[in-house]
Amino acid sequence: MTTRFMATTCLAAVCLAVAGCGGGGGGSGSNDNGVSFSFLGVFQEVNDVPGSPPVLPTVDNHPGDSGREVDLSQIDAIPNDVNDDGDHDGGFLGMQNNLNQESMNVEGVEVKIVIAGAVINPVATDFVPMAIRLGPAKVAVNETATNEAFVQVLFVQPKIIAFLNQNPDLLPAKPFTMNVVMKLRATADNGDHFESNEFTYPVTVVPSAL
How far apart are CA 43 and CA 17, in angstroms? Predict the structure, then answer.
């Protein structure tokens, strides 16, 4: 699977736990509501014109990705290919290390699929691993801070999409809103574990056109 990123590398592998089974990642966390480690939201490309290289989000320019409408039978993951140019569109997770002195490694994102009116909630859970290095918030004069990153991640993995398509009896009648509730997990260089604030990404699921 190919992911796109700003100034770092993202490894997003499938690590699935559906229908309420436990996620992965391990370790205890300190959740201080994003004070030390912030989940900034979900963002999209600055410009993505078919036939031209996309302009990826940066610290200075990162348009928001406020949600999307999908036909689950026609996609394999979220973010999906919205403009039919052969790559995934949007879905860049923004993250920021607010520790003044310590760098941290972002290990992945916890994902819960929550659908009002479903038979069970969360309908599915997942943990998508990443390997992102964030520098400290304070740097020397004339140095560039590396404590903020925007990384495209398939946060609703193909196995989750397959599970939803294979279990329509668990879901309400379409259209419905599928809330993707996410929380980032990281470890600072001194060994402290951090969980970010939660962020909810709304997806409108529409009836299949077929």
Answer: 25
pLDDT tier, 18 (very low <50, low <70, confident <90, very high otherwise): very low
Instruction: Indicate the pairing of strand 148-152 with strand 92-97.
Output: antiparallel
- Alpha-carbon separation of residue 171 from 87, 99, 115, 160 (angstroms): 28, 41, 8, 13
Tell me the C-alpha distance between 99 and 122, whole Å: 32
Place of tokens 């294979």: 166
Whole-number Cα distances in Å, 133 to 21, 44, 181: 29, 21, 23
8 Å CB contact between 54 and 43: no
**Residue 172: what pLDDT?**
98
Closest to 31 (Cα-Cα) out of 180, 161, 196: 196
| Rg of the chain (C-alpha set) | 17
Per residue in 111-130, pLDDT (tens digit) is: 999 999 999 999 999 999 99
Instruction: Tell me if the bond preceding 168 is cis, omega within 30° of 0.
Output: no
pTM of the model: 0.84
Closest CA relative to residue 109, chosen from 58, 39, 59? 39
Taking the CB of residue 75, how many other CB atoms lie within 10 A of it? Answer: 18
Helix (H) or strand (E) holding 97: strand 92-97
SS3 content of the chain, % helix, strand, coil (to 5): 5, 35, 55
Compute the average pLDDT of residues 25-44: 76
